[in-house]
Amino acid sequence: MSKKIYKTPGVYIEEVSAFPNSVVGVPTAVPAFIGYTPQANHGGNDCTFVPTKIASFMEFERIFCFPNSLDPVQQYSPQYYLVRENAKPTTGDFLLIGSDYYSIVPDAYTIYYMYNSVKLFYQNGGGEAYIVSVGGYGNASGTAVQVGAPLVNPNIQLADLLKGLSALKKEKEPTMYICPEATLLSIAENGTLMQQMLMQNNEMQTAISIFDVIGGNRENPLGNDVDIEAFRSHTGTTGLSYGAAYYPFVGTAIMGMHDLDYTNLFGGDVRGLVTVFSSLRLPEENTLELLKSIYNSESSQSVSENHRTLLAISATYKDIISAVLKVANILPASGGMAGVITMVDNSRGVWKAPANVSMAGVATLPIKIDSIEQEGLNVDAMSGKSINALRIFPGMGIMIWGARTLDGNSNDWRYVNVRRTMIYIEQSCKNACKSFVFESNDANIWLRIQRMIENFLNDLWRQGGLAGATPKDAFFVSCGLGTTMTTNDILNGQLIVNIGVAVTRPAEFIVITFSQQQVVSS
After folding, report:
1. Which of the two ends of the chain, N or C, has the fewest CB atoms closer than 10 A to its terminal CB?
2. Beta strands at 397-401 and 388-393: parallel, antiparallel or unpaired
3. What angle is formed at CA 37 by the lines to CA 154 and CA 398, rounded to 5 degrees?
């Protein structure tokens, strides 16, 4: 501190800092969602492909959803068709109406996951997040996909999602990348997107990517291993420690009886419902009369009023809507996982594995996994690409039963919480050291930096974030000439700090050994 020169007699006060610089922990749970939204209007400006920070679902609705009127607007309007079958279907979703079976098949051009995934994120404890809208919804095709065919939405473009991903390169705050609609691409294009996400994570070292597995929405007649192997063979080999995959999809309760109506059936053509109800052995006359008046534009009620009336007078209509909702509510798990990770970080810490907890708003799983099947998901000797399972346990419900990254064969980066804890430590220390750039590279600065980082790590150890009985066992920090730097390093303007930490790892396999003890006479 330079000495001030005083020229005028008087009393002067000088404030001296009582506390040294400190490391402030960076936020650990800030997901970035990339996908399609109803609109993208922030304060009258188009924010398509602009990472926009929100703090609540209400804020998401204000910026990225259609304004609501007296008759509520459907923010997400998928289209489904009821296809009459000659016999009970062996694949796909179906329902029994009267004595006839109908397959429930979507118009693939109308299926999107972004809106409901953001809602699932906030149901599970989500907080601040970034939204990267890559455009609005495309036009419907007016036809149903073939029963049992893969669900691919041609309106979802790989180029759009890659452009949205690239927009995040300038944002350092997001710690998770989520792209729920990636599973609506072809397998090859989904692989390209996943590889680009991992490469960007590996380059920036600030975030992980949470992936879903194509095919996780239904049992594969050829075996679920086909979908798993397709996923593993398309994720590449770069940045695997920055990725985590979850399987299967989840059956949620996001959408309710008043979120879908007859306009979501048969492309909005009420004649399809008229045909279904006319084929009943005992036709519901009141229902048919109302449906025909809707088709002929003779009904004086709004869509929502007609829908409520149909629910009240027709048990069959209610069954149809319930069955379609069950299909529409099957979502990729990534949005909910982002919420769970946020909740775990806030309640326990980034070092706690986001596993052995349930996901709110999830009622069913479309694929049931047992211990034998999970063996092949959790440990893969060939690729090492672990996939975390969501499973149903009696008396416990649906649990997240895995905490591994895609780098499952690595001793260093096998676990999600280890990778995320290291990101937290690295970025926090990096930000704190920026204040020393262009300072004199001498012993005084080395000591200040060392003490600053040691204080940060000591606090982390006291909270349970580092392993070890004592701070000495948990971490070390070294900085100085002859220890971390040479004279040439100093001449080249390099200040090198070595940090070692013992990050806590989850007790993934708890083995209890029992033995019989012989009776000993007293």
Report:
1. C
2. antiparallel
3. 90
